[in-house]
Amino acid sequence: MDQKRKLVIQGGGVYLKKAVRVLIAGAIIAAVAVGFYLIGYKTAYDRIEEGSSGQAVLPQTFYAEITDISGELFTVDGLEINDINFRGAFTFSIATETELVWRGNKMRLDEFNIGDTIAINFTGAVQETYPGHIQDVVRVQLLDDEK
Q1: Is residue 111 part of a domain?
Q2: Distance (Å, rounded) from C-alpha 20 to C-alpha 131?
Q3: Residue 56 pLDDT more than 70?
Q4: Are residues 80 and 38 in the same domain?
């Protein structure tokens, strides 16, 4: 074979090797992308399944005025500043693990009075009764300036 033909044949082999490398790299990138997609899909599906158990995953907070206190059971009216779902009447019980605070200081249950403005932080469900009953109250914070 003459010299020109040898160079063309050898040059073609170089292009073929580059094409194979590009195809292999593309296949690896596609496999990684599909893997990440499947992992993301599974994670999102698991989160949806956890959220459908009826309880909120993240805490919610709303503001209210105390209308009645019977031992550890509070009855409150939600303030107008709240979302429309938290403007009505609600009841909740204070559990031993419920944090009671005012200006960062711990409070006792007997320090709350009818007419106090409070923030209620909870993670549980709200029973659709009248008044609505809030489960799993995590924190009750007195919002009034003076005590």
Answers
A1: yes
A2: 70
A3: no
A4: no
**Interior angle at CA 76, CA 70 and CA 80, nearest 5:** 170
Residue 147 domain-assigned? no
Task: Give me the count of residues in the chain.
Answer: 147
Alpha carbon distance 127, 79 (integer Å): 19
Give the H/E segment covering residue 43: helix 3-51
pLDDT at 57: 57
106-127 as b/e: b if 16+ CB within 10 A: ebeeeebeeebebebbbebebe
Given a cut of 90, whether residue 17 has pLDDT beyond it is no
Residue 72 sits in the same domain as residue 136: yes
Query: How many domains does one find in the chain?
Result: 2
- 85-97 pLDDT tens trace: 889 999 999 988 8
Q: Which residue has the higher pLDDT, 58 or 115?
A: 115
Residue 137: partners with Cβ closer than 8 Å, 6 or more residues away: 92, 93, 94, 95, 98, 120, 121, 122, 124
Q: Say whether both 89 and 31 belong to one domain.
A: no
Residue for token pair 């489960």: 135
Residues 3 and 25 both lie in one domain: yes
